[in-house]
Amino acid sequence: MKFFCYFCLDYVLNKTNMGKVIAIANQKGGVGKTTTAINLAASLAVLEKKVLIIDADPQANTTSGLNFSPENDQKRTLYEVMIGEIDVTDALIQTEIASLHMIPSHINLVGAELELVDNPDREVFLKKALAPIKNNYDYIIIDCSPSLGLITINSLTAADSVMIPVQPEFFALEGLGKLLQTIRLVQSGPNPDLAIEGFVVTMFDGRTKVHNQVLTELQEHFKDMVFKTIINRNIRLSEAPSHGKPIILYDVICNGTTNYLSLAKEVLEKNS
Fold first, then answer.
1. Left, alpha or beta for 48 (phi > 0: left; psi -120 to 50: alpha)?
2. CA 119, CA 154: separation in Å to the nearest integer?
3. Residue 8 has pLDDT above 90, yes or no
4. For residues 170 and 264, what is the distance between their CA atoms, to the nearest angstrom?
5. Hey, what domains does the chain have and what are their CATH numbers?
6. What distance in Å separates the CA atoms of residue 209 and residue 99, rounded to the nearest whole number?
7. The predicted structure's pLDDT at residue 174
8. How far apart are CA 193 and CA 7, in angstroms?
9. Cα–Cα distance between 107 and 79 in angstroms, integer?
């Protein structure tokens, strides 16, 4: 995997359709947020869509999960884009999937919130940075930080919609209220057009009573906003990041691959 120059993006830069930006967000860790971001993006790319995935989490798990170490080039990550040191095109990386590109993250991204706090454009900086390339992709997937700080606000402001992964545990449900409140604040401020793409249930085990109860509660409360596709608990899904691969490249025949391809098709159908 390597950085590639502006001119190497010719097949992307000639696109004319406006890309859709989907933020993957949940302030509770361990709910499958990064797994969903990586594998939804990879599945959309395999389904012949031009996709950009942005790692907006200082933990940089999406970055390492796609086989790139930010330590290799700390000067071309989302942090440098956010503080205006480099152009967004200089941060683009080619992944193992031809039509999937990435903007990596680094722990330095934590400092961006402090550096942007006095900037009058602090809530819309990412949106402005992405504007020159938004038309070049069918989908832009943003893996948000689990915190609800300025970087996440930037991600939600840049997004057209937000997808919320939910682990079917009661503690996971408790955090939804705060996230939905943050979404409402963004809707009432910098991004009034922000929509909820939907809730996706992750790490589901149909053998457990609590998982079935939580799934039923979600479906009854949010109705059609809950994706029909359920991401089942799958050991291969948990193994794939350590090999730096999305599940579709790690094990094409496992249930995890089937689930995320189904989710990607559902997203495409919803946005057709």
1. left
2. 13
3. no
4. 26
5. 2-199 (3.40.50.300)
6. 40
7. 75
8. 33
9. 9
Q: Specify burial of residue 17 (Cβ count, 10 A radius: 0-12, 13-18, 19+).
A: exposed
| Selection from 208, 209, 218, 155 nearest residue 183 by Cα | 155
**144 vs 154: CA distance, rounded Å:** 9
- pLDDT tens per residue across span 9-52: 333 333 335 789 999 999 888 899 999 999 999 999 999 999 99
Q: What is the pLDDT of residue 126?
A: 95
Kindly report the three-state secondary structure assignment for every residue of 190-245.
CCCCCEEEEEEECCECCCCHHHHHHHHHHHHHHHHHECCCCCECCHHHHHHHHHCC
Residue carrying structure tokens 């545990």? 169
Q: What is the mean pLDDT of residues 202-230?
A: 95
Residues 218, 199: contact at Cβ < 8 Å? yes
The mean pLDDT of the chain is 90
Matching residue, tokens 């200089």: 90
Identify the CA nearest to 148 among candidates 177, 119, 125, 121. 177
**Residues linked to residue 234 through DSSP beta bridges, in sequence order:** none
Q: How far apart are CA 56 and CA 88, in angstroms?
A: 13
Q: What is the pTM of this model?
A: 0.91
What angle do the packed helices 150-158 and 176-188 form, to 10 degrees? 60
